[in-house]
Amino acid sequence: MRPRVRLRLAIAAAILPLAAGCFHAQYQTKPAVAVVDGDPIVQMAPPAALPSLDGPAYSLWKAHTDPPAPWEPVVGIAGRGYPLGLLDRYEVVNDVSARAPYVVARCPLAGLAAVYDRRVGGRTLTVINSGALWRDTLVLEDRETGTLWTAATGEALYGPLQGERLTPIPATNATMNAFAESNPRARYLDTGELTEAPISMSLYDSSGWQGFSGFQTKDRRFEPKAKVYSISDGNEAVAFVEEDLKGRGCVTAELGGRLVLLEWDVARDAPRAFRGPSDGSAEIAVVPMYWFAIDRHFETVRTLGR
């Protein structure tokens, strides 16, 4: 490791506890927009202070301003890849494919990366970062109605569209190399900035902090900061890790009273989920999230043999 990089890591490691403590204090004192299911929507920053992207630029991997390293994670959909390091800087990206307008939502605090259809009730919404957190997770806001949505499930928490849900869209969460091999013509989000994760995020990832609210999960089926995949239906979820699927072929689970099929896609080196044959075998969105965040957002969480 280069001396300059070691110095930056050392400085960031020293600052992180102070910064985390500061954010915790802010979480306790910042205004609550509303209280939903017993938890406040906390306005941590003004919406304009946190950038979102509309109509972003893309480049081929080799022509990228800062080509992601083969091992770096990306979120892939419709032949486009979104390097996770860039999503750590721009947590909300509005885009459109031939099938649907969608938003890519990233919450580093919750370890979340999800894609949602932006159409609700015949209207296409434009989504921004609201600057608020609910249950230590990014809260989205649409410009058209001002409704607040949780990035964890796509549910409208507060505002004119309260009770509606954004429809999750299946996306690939894989390494750059695996995604590129299965999508050789893919283009990648290019903002002209570095694609590696900010050091502060890497340190938070390895720290004991579970967001900033002070919540601590008591469910130890996984470690609190374990990187867990989930599929969900309303307030119910099935959670699993890579080891639960690799080498096991197709695994079945129950979700919403129906059968779902889980598999590890070798070509993509990523998990996939499908409704059972009786429900048309439609693909279901698989969302990565820290275990503590899954525990916070779902009333019922099933795991595979745990």
Structure description:
The chain is α+β, with helices and mostly antiparallel strands and 306 residues long. Strand 1 and strand 2 form a beta hairpin. The strands form 6 sheets. A 6-stranded antiparallel beta sheet has the order 1-2-12-13-14-15, with no helix packed on it. The longest helix has 27 residues. It has 6 helices and 25 strands.
Topology:
Blueprint: H1 3-29, E1 32-36, E2 39-43, E3 53-54, E4 58-60, E5 73-77, E6 80-83, H2 84-87, E7 92-96, E8 101-107, E9 112-117, E10 119-120, E11 123-124, E12 127-134, E13 137-142, E14 148-150, E15 156-158, E16 172-175, H3 176-182, E17 187-189, H4 199-206, E18 227-233, E19 236-240, H5 242-245, E20 251-255, E21 258-265, E22 270-275, E23 283-284, E24 287-290, H6 291-297, E25 300-303
Helix pairs in contact: 1-4
Q: Structural class of the helices, strands and pairings? A: alpha+beta
Strand sequence of the main sheet, in spatial order?
1-2-12-13-14-15
Identify low-pLDDT runs.
1-5, 7-12
Largest sheet: 6 strands, antiparallel
Structural shape:
globular
Beta-strand level of the residues, as a percent range? Answer: 35-45%
